[in-house]
Amino acid sequence: MIWLQENWIIAVVGLVVAVVLLWWLFGRGKADDIAPPAAEPTKPAKPLEPVKPQIIAAEPARFKPIEPAPAPVPAPVTAPAPPVPAPQPAPAAAPIAPEPIEPGVIDPVTPTAAPEPAPEPGSVTAPAPPTGAADNLQLLKGVGPKMVGLLNGLGVTKFQQIADWTDADVAAIDAQLGAFQGRIARDNLVDQASYLARGDKAGFEAKYGALGGAL
Prior knowledge:
Elements: H1 2-6, H2 8-33, H3 145-153, H4 159-163, H5 167-174, H6 183-186, H7 189-197, H8 201-208
């Protein structure tokens, strides 16, 4: 006991070495015992046998009985339409023989005169030129030489003609004045002409200003 107390370190080391040796010996023996047995050689597999087809007896075919075809229905017989009689031609009218004209008698039938053509809409038939000398239409306010020429071409040369114009006459003549359209109404030419046609110089000048020449 005294030795162990003095040399306990050596005793511990020796004990550890002994334990390790025992563990190594016992562990190796168990490893040999637990070693897996050697695998047996595999036997060659038998070749696969072909699968025999399973023969199933076929059932006898069942035939559907053939149905008889339906009898054809006869088409209805229609009576033929009665023939339409052909139209009879109308009897030709007998020509009327002209009555004989006795010699020396004049035929009472006189030819009719051809109707006069109607004037086209928008046009004015030039009236017959009035008798006497033409009036100086340039005395009307707003009327110049070119407009006088247009009015004379339409047969207008007198103040009285302009004073007698109706609304329809004004519309028809104004449509033929070209660049001077609208002057008749704008310059009151009908009213001006009425003063000058009756020789009312004072009334004209009182309303339209001084007259530009001898009336």
